[in-house]
Amino acid sequence: MAELSPTAQDGEYRLGFAGDAFNTSWYLARLSPDTDVSFLTAIGDDSLSRQMMDLFAQSGIKENYVQHLENQTIGMYMISLQNGERSFHYWRGQSAAKKLADDPQKLATAFSENDVIYFSGITLAILPDKSRQGFLAALKTAKEAGKTIVFDPNLRPRLWETADAMTSAIMQGAAVSTIVLPSFEDEAEWFHDENPMATLNRYKALGIPTVIVKNGPDPVLFEHNGHSGEYPVAPITEVTDTTAAGDSFNAGFLARFGSGDIEWAIKGGAELAARVVQSRGALVAKATEMD
Ligand code: ADP
User: Fold this and answer.
1) CB 30 within 8 A of CB 253
2) Considering 49, 241, 252, 262, which has the largest number of Cβ atoms within 10 A of its Cβ?
3) Could you tell me if 125 and 158 are in contact, meaning their C-beta atoms sit under 8 angstroms apart?
4) pLDDT tens by residue, 105-134
5) Which protein residue's CA is at the shortest distance from atom 22 of ligand 1?
């Protein structure tokens, strides 16, 4: 999405680009330059869409699965600051990305050509019902073919008609995944989980081999191939901006997941996210420079 964020100059805004799955791709491409990171989406044919593609190219994110649609544009959000409080305003109703799953053949090809497929609750939220069902079916086929399917539930009630529609789609998304990366605070609110273990157990009950429950500065709870434990996060007390904490965690984790050492992978996620929350904005280049 395009992002308009306030500058130090009153009334002036800066144009940038961000979005949850994009943030994770951006961090992953920086951490693992030898890994192919492609982004599957749909954009328009206007200059704003082209500028976003320039950022993909500069960031090492491949565009081979980006569909260009005539007379369309991308979604946008604006951050406004009032008395130091940030609020978000969205224009995403007409976003071309809502059509990213309209062509089942394109989805099947993209999924068959990659080993790891990442999506989020926001991916599910923006899709119309019919294409969401097609998207989930394509993921199920990919999972059965042995692909690693990674899902961050990223609960955003404002994007759903009802809380029930959201929680039921999230559980469907988790059911076609092999790695689920929820954040406890959101899960507690919408699934009424009493503690991180309840979140872990709810996803584990679907038969998912890897569940990683993030919890801000508190320990990360994990279950991986029947082995479970807690990873203590080094808490940051001087937090500047938590934007993209979860997204960057996911990238740091995935960059190391292939090693098979689950605690080392969680450490990678936690250390990157800890650096990200100490800077302003979603995309913090210097946070990846120590890896
Ligand atoms: P989200 O941004 O998705 O709401 P969380 O708030 O659970 O996710 O944070 C994701 C990860 O970011 C945590 O697991 C942790 O590793 C890191 N993190 C977030 N806040 C802090 C903090 N105050 N100190 C240290 N790490 C943090």
Assistant:
1) no
2) 252
3) no
4) 999 999 999 999 999 999 999 999 999 999
5) 217
Strand-strand pairing, 210-213 and 179-180: parallel
**Ligand 1 pocket, residues with Cβ under 6 angstroms:** 183, 214-217, 220, 233, 235-236, 239, 242, 245-246, 249, 270, 273-274, 277
pLDDT tens digit string along 140-173? 999 999 999 999 999 999 999 999 999 999 999 9
Pocket test for ligand 1, best of 218, 242, 276 (most atoms within 8 A of CB): 242
This prediction has a pTM of 0.96
Do strands 210-213 and 220-224 pair parallel, antiparallel, or not at all (unpaired)?
Answer: antiparallel
How far does the centroid of ligand 1 lie from the alpha carbon of residue 249, in Å?
8
Residue having the nearest C-alpha atom to atom 6 of ligand 1: 216
8 A C-beta contact, residue 112 and residue 142: yes
